[in-house]
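Prompt: Have a read of the protein record below and flag anything odd:
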Amino acid sequence: MFIIPVGNRVDWKRPPVVTLLLILINCFVFFALQGSDDRNDEKAMQYYFSSDLPKWELDRYTQYLKKEKARVTPEQFEYLLQEQDTTTLLILENDDKFMHELHAGHIVTPQAPEYREWTKQRNHYESLRSFTSRYVYHADDPDPLKAFVSAFMHGSFDHLLGNMVVLFLIGFLVESVIGKALFTFAYISTAYAAAYMYGLTAEPGSSALGASGAIAGVMGLYTVIFGLRKIDFFYSLGFYFDYVRAPAIVLLPLWLGNELYQYWTDDEAHIAYMAHFGGLLGGAVIGALYRVFRPALIKEHHQAVDGKEMDAKEFQRGMDYLGAMEFQKALTVFKALQVKHPRDMNIMRLVYRAAKSNPASDDYHQAAFNLLTLPDMDDATSSQTHAIFKEYLSAAKPSPRVSQEVAITLAKRFAADGHLMDAEKLANMLQRSKPQHVALPSVLLALARGYYREQQKDKFETILQSLIDQFPQSQDAEVARGMLRVV
């Protein structure tokens, strides 16, 4: 059984930084730190059997097995001892209790004459071993460092890929609600919860690695935070799969029950089901605490999401009206959205498009004004603004309503962007309506510079001379005189 929530799209204006960073760390550990595991283990194995370590350790391990209740009998180990191969060393290395005693100096004791040399060779052997061998989490050895590092290691590329896909799908949803700091804390905490639950329930000598326990924690956190809110989730049962909408909290008992069922029935699978179970429980506990101490933040997030969903539905309704050429209905929808999102240029353009059906209306003149006076423009927006200006001049009824301030702004902008004919048209319009306008010298200077860039010398000189003649005392006229002297 496979069940996973299907959330909203990632808001890349506020990217899930921690989720992406966790994915990068997992990938770095797998490709960079675990990538040379096989080569390092082979090198370590060769050194081990070429050193004095087998002489000092393997016989002592046989004696140890005679005293301890172990999965391998002394007789079996003595048989393997004759071969002195990989299997022999793996049995020794995977006996966490023996290794703990060995590293504590209880097997080869400080009183032993070979202790100093053994320590030297054992340390060198440890340094040669693979990253995975050194840091994998063992059920018999609840080492906090290994519990942490193992949560970023994986046994294969498929193992890594599957975990990272689920982490991305769930992680950004939770991070967007509880924030980066708490999400980081929750991820690490549930990684430990997963490791220690695994240690309590796994067979002695077994080991586990992978991010799935921590990811299960994020999933448990998700179900509690979203609670009774209905969400879409994808599920598969064998070859059957579908989407269903249900309260998020329903997923928690389903996930917990599935992990327990798999743990009890799937003995042959090398999957740490109880690590998943522990992670889910840990995440659920953190989620419950967050709901108690930060209910307002959860409510605020859900309201924001609901608002976006409602806006998306309204936007689609407006587009449907446009498609059906019901322009007045579309205009009503887009104007309402514009009140909520006054700086959304896409909505501004749609308001203009819907209002254009009635070019004599105040809505059309206002929509054109909003687009023509945008404060910040890139090249594409500037080009669109010029096209809207030309369309507005020809379509507006009874006539365009271009104020002097708008004419000044557009004239300078069009001159800078190379739309010189329209810039000059606006400059002439301004000269006719208010020939002594205080901004007119700067408009003429901008227009002259535009013609200079286009290498139209006659136009350039004519406009500069007109500027000097009309506004001889202005600072722009002084600049114009300097430009004429240079030419």
Notes: The beta strands are 2-6, 137-138, 207-208, 230-237, 240-247. The first strand starts at residue 2 and ends at 6. The chain has four domains: 2-28+149-293, 37-129, 294-377, 402-487.
